[in-house]
Amino acid sequence: MNTVRPDQDDDGQPSRAQLLALVQRGLRSRPKRLPSWLFYDERGSRLFERICEQPEYYLTRCEIALLERHAADIARAFGPQVRLVEYGSGNAVKTRLLLEQLEDPVCYVPVELAADALRVSVERLGRLFPELPLQPLCADFTRPLRLPVAPRAPRRTVIYFPGSTLGNFESRDAVALLRKMRGEMGEAGGVLVGVDLKKDPAVIEAAYNDAAGVTADFTLNLLVRLNRELGCDFDLDAFRHRARYNRLAGRVETHLVSQRAQEVRVGRMRIRFAAQEAMLVEYSAKYAPAEFAALANRAGLTVRHRWTDPDGMFAAFCLGR
Ligand code: AVI
């Protein structure tokens, strides 16, 4: 659902025609579905930052606690003179905790499609690590990357993919992305990936249904975006956010549910929604450690180390060939 994005304009967003075509395709499929990367326009990215601060959304706090406790061990596992390539522009706190511990890092390569987000994170890290060469790459990390030439030969390239974002990919797309990382890291390289672990479903569901309603606003913002960018006429009061944990599939499935029978204009098409019809907008997969190891194996990668936060909620896996 996430992996294949169309080509983008300079601002990292698809053109109007591309967006219209992919939205019409998603709304004609049964069940209706839209890719979750559509959440992240400017407002959506800000709402996501607020989600990370909600008391119910444990993921960010636990991943930071994990790094506070284990960043030195993680850095030791990778050894000196690492080239660190991060998929996504990087949460300043997480990236800082890791970079602080790396011994004599060769360079840091943040890979991010949104040019503004990339610039902001590079400025921030440049202030924190004035000696470290920064090589920002404005690109879609789901596509093959041409990494910039490193300023000196690294001993190892490490692809860092924090935040449980891999959980937003369907498993075959997650395997394809891990396989791509395997190619980019080279023979001696490694992958460091943040993974949300299976736990009490009530705790997981609460994280995606915060009391302040920030996640609901984040999900509904997808319709705001389509109204603005495609001239659709989604009535925001006629759709509701629903996030449920599917135990069998091991993932949160987020839907926008139509509150009545209605028709919506999408370009020249009129799309019919039945009352209570649910449109799939996001998966957030949760893994048991053995399940994640099996996923990595499908991509030709092996778990070398695993660290968890003190409460055992979130894990960081170090993968190698
Ligand atoms: C970015 N990603 C890992 C988040 C998650 O937990 O799946 C996105 C999110 N969706 C709703 N809340 C947070």
TrEMBL record:
| Recorded GO MF terms | methyltransferase activity
Instruction: From the UniProt record, list the coiled-coil ranges.
Output: none
What are the GO BP annotations of this UniProt entry? methylation
Q: What residue stretches are annotated with the Histidine-specific methyltransferase SAM-dependent domain?
A: 22-319
Q: Which InterPro entries match?
A: EgtD, EgtD_Methyltrsf_superfamily, MeTrfase_dom, MeTrfase_EgtD-like, SAM-dependent_MTases_sf
Keyword annotations from UniProtKB, A to Z: Methyltransferase, Transferase
Which protein, by its recorded name, is this?
Answer: Histidine-specific methyltransferase SAM-dependent domain-containing protein
Species of origin: Aerosticca soli
